[in-house]
């Protein structure tokens, strides 16, 4: 079992507690030299860390939103750099285009089926999509590669596209192939699913990823 600590080196955390509990109860996977040590416990809830309050951060957590309110987007979009939409019912990314200089987007726990209407996000570096229902790997990677050229931190844990990591269930190779596929298409990633991308892994992904290109919906069933 992977050792956990309160905050990882990139400033993100994994939340295995209820979202209403104090933030100091949140823990994160400890980065290690092997990404396969990043084990996801069955009961773990994955969520990114809330950041300090200031005018560049807009937090709309747990508001039962199905999309970003247009009036808020138009009023605050120009100044916001971090947008937190955790634990809503987001099904559409309408109005995200108003956040023209957004750098961090948190969309954990929304039950999202796709990101088909994601606009171009030229400054986006961090994207959290944990605990959703994303199942089409090909379409997901195509959109991210096209619309998020500066993306460096991506987390997709607890989605159908991301195999659960249980050594006892034999998913080690499946998760490795998943990482190679993602890194082959998104060359700029330095972290995937809270774990650092090593130079060796990136090289392997470029060599092997072309043989793992997904043409149809990606599934994780045996």
Automatic annotation (TrEMBL):
Pfam families: LRR_9. Residues 1-55 are annotated as: Disordered. Residues 9-36 have a biased composition (Polar residues). This is Uncharacterized protein.
């Amino acid at each position: 079992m992977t050792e956990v600590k309160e905050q990882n080196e990139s400033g993100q955390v994994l939340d295995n507690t209820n979202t209403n509990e104090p933030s100091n109860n949140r823990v994160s996977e400890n980065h290690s030299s092997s990404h396969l040590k990043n084990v996801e416990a069955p009961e773990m809830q994955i969520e990114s860390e809330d950041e300090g309050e200031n005018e560049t951060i807009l937090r709309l957590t747990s508001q039962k939103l199905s999309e970003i309110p247009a009036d808020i987007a138009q009023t605050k979009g120009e100044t916001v750099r971090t947008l937190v939409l955790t634990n809503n019912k987001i099904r559409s990314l309408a109005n995200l285009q108003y956040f023209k200089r957004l750098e961090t987007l948190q969309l954990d726990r929304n039950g999202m089926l796709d990101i088909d209407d994601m606009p171009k996000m030229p400054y986006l570096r961090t994207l959290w999509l944990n605990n959703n229902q994303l199942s089409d790997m090909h379409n997901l990677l195509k959109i991210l590669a096209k619309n998020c050229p500066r993306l460096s931190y991506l987390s997709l844990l607890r989605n159908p596209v991301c195999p659960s990591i249980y050594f006892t269930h034999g998913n080690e190779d499946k998760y490795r192939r998943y990482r190679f596929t993602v890194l082959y298409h998104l060359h700029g990633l330095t972290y995937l699913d809270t774990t650092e991308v090593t130079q060796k892994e990136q090289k392997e992904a470029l060599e092997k990823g072309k043989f793992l290109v997904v043409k149809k919906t990606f599934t994780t069933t045996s």
